[in-house]
Amino acid sequence: MDIMSDGPVLVLSGDLDVRSTMEVRTAVRDLLLSYDEVAIDLSGVESADVTALRVLAAATVQAVRDGHHLTLRQPSPAVRRMLHLSHLARIVEVTPAEGVG
């Protein structure tokens, strides 16, 4: 998993799975400390497991509680499918690339 930030956008690429959850959680938290609106670009994520997607859902809920806004940008069809199968699509907001930044 590669993690890069570009202003208020966190760009993830590779496999988003349980092994990367701590790094992703920390990166999201750090961006939300600096920006009110944060987007997580998932266009480079090839696959994701439910554990990692739960981290993104929990970050979304916490962001709202703290008065911030977190969106997921351009998930692949496989990642989108996992969001729907896990019912996490009800919690997260998915936007096209133009959403933030």
Automatic annotation (TrEMBL):
Signal peptide: none annotated. Coiled coil: none annotated. Residues 1-101 form the STAS domain. Transmembrane segments: none annotated. This is STAS domain-containing protein.
